[in-house]
Specification:
670 residues; alpha+beta; 5-stranded mixed sheet
Length: 670
Amino acid sequence: MTFEEYQKLKDLISRHMDLYYNQDSPEISDAEYDALMRDLKAAEKEHPEWVSADSPTLRVGGSVRRENGVKIGHTVPMLSIEDLFTKEEVSDWVGKVLAAYPGCRFSVETKIDGLSMTLRYRGEGSGRMSLVLAETRGDGYTGEDVTANALTISSIPRTLPLPYPSLEVRGEVYMTREAFDRFNRIQEEKGQKQAANPRNLAAGTLRQLDPGITRERSLSFFAFNIQTGPDELMRSHSESMDVLEKAGMPVVYRESCGSAAEVLDAIDRIGDMRGSLPYDIDGAVVKIDDIALRSAFPSGAKYSSGHIAFKYPPEERVVVMDEIVTDVGRTGKLTFTGVFHDRETGGPARLCGTFVSRATLHNRDYINELKIGIGGEYLLYKSGEIIPKIKSCVKEPKEVFTPPEFCPKCGSRLKSEPGTADILCLNSACPAQISRNISYFTSVGCMNILGLGETIVDELVKEGYLSDCAGIYRLRERRDELVRAGIIGKEKNTDKILDAIERSKEASPVRLLTGLGIRNVGPSAAGTLMKKYRSLEALAAAGEEELTSLEDIGPTTARCVRDYFSDPGNLRLIEELKEAGVVTDMPEEESAGDELAGMTVAVTGTLPTLGRREANEMIERHGGKPTGSVSSKTSLLVAGEAAGSKLTKARELGVRVIDEDELRRICNEN
């Protein structure tokens, strides 16, 4: 086989991969496809020098896993863009540029809410270029090699019909709202945790070890800058974007402007587009079009010169309250949800690209303060452009909502918790509490029983299969009955969930204690308690005063722990869990060293190999104290991809910032 024949074979297989994986319209059989792949592999075995990163043999979904944590030094730093929040600031910045360089033009572009990635292309000497490397932003100077995953993103060209020896393109990886909604629907059907927003899901997806997972989640890409390239592409930014677009590279929406007034008009037009775009944007970027002039307008060491970003204020809509739904949480606390419609359209309110018709109303003090009631009109916004919240009352209702006196699920009389605005159902047999307690116990942050989500738990409780958490470990005894009933699914899915239940027995006692749902005892408090007492039996014997003496365990938490273990029913539950084989004692080798003794360590962003819980457990094993925030008392910040505001604050306070590799070196866990 000649090199030209090899290239044609690559292109043919790539076309069929696209038809099969991305368009769901294959034109050849699996056998014919396999035969083509065998020919390609044989050619690459004979001529390994022909193999490049875009070879279909490296892009088979699930068959090739990238090596995690391979670091790549950026040839051009991938810095941030300085954010401005008022149009006056934007106008002043544009004015300074024009005062120094009259006639200068600007490119105003959509600021995609995703994560940055640089693509490196290399010329093949035949009038085209091939993608050879994709790298994440990392700390701005060193990123991670994600080439295998980038090759699964259909909007990223594997080759460009350009005659240059090399080219670096920077852009944004993002997830459309449609792809995000599809992912969450699938997660809900599986009973697994749903993603909070498209940006976070995109970040986690790009860094998956299995490229097949990245492909399944349908990421997208827009180019917004050329980092390095031939002189002809390093003069005018707009012209370079035109070249990329004509070559088949998707580029961000942009407008060319020559004055402050034109720039502000473009920002307004982009802002008006937010609701109609199929993806999220969080601002508009203004760039000096003449690339050579950018270095004359630096914004600081961490920002790209010659760029600024205008951040849009939160969107707001006036809504009319239609209904207030009362429910019972897993701890017995009443929850309130407002159901409303947009005053102007009569339908759900559209905010930040999604339709909203519900918002949490927290507690009775919140309801009274905002005068929430049926028929009232309220200003709605999204906190962090994610969580819908009521900001203020626009028109008062005829009467403010009054919480019920009796539990809507079991009919028991409700009680007010002293010193709080909370209303509680104290009936431990309340069906709502049973389902929510068990669902919480099985969740990812607790015993992590994959597949056993809230929907299935509700049905198991309703049909009498479950009445408490310990009953989960007796489900295997009724396996055949469950299969016949079809509550969990057919044989395959039932066995899969039963196996997940069996594996959960080996979970850390910290997870178990968290899963018991003791009020005010989350993962952090559970870690503190188990580090001290080492077993649930020892913790159950601890007095309230003794508990209060522990760091981070206040009087309220100590009282909740003591109340829980004073209940004979809870003690029986723990004994049943122990008899079922669930681990209730911490392992002897829990402490690994004191390298972080006396240090408070925060973690932010997505780390290469460690989840947040795993990182905190490592910190604790080595004598450190994990914290969820950054302050002057913070000793270290472990920063990963998309570190965000914690990283900014750490730098402002002079807190030492390290990455996962450095944390491992400190802890001798390389």
